[in-house]
Design a protein that fits this description.
mainly alpha; 0% strand; rod-shaped; Flp family type IVb pilin; membrane; transmembrane; Flp_Fap
Length: 49
């Protein structure tokens, strides 16, 4: 029974695109964070005042 449930979960492709979009968003966030910290920008450097 457990093996059948696992097989059904592996075959089920609904919601795959949402997971893929979440992974892409996470990767973009991490890359952006590292790029900004590597360059050394500070939010106060960008905003006037």
């Amino acid at each position: 029974m457990l093996l059948r449930i696992l097989r059904n979960l592996l075959r089920d492709e609904t919601g795959v695109s949402a997971v893929e979009y979440a992974l892409i968003a996470a990767i973009v966030t991490v890359v952006t964070t590292f790029a900004v910290s590597a360059v050394g920008f500070n939010i106060t450097d960008i905003l006037p005042g």
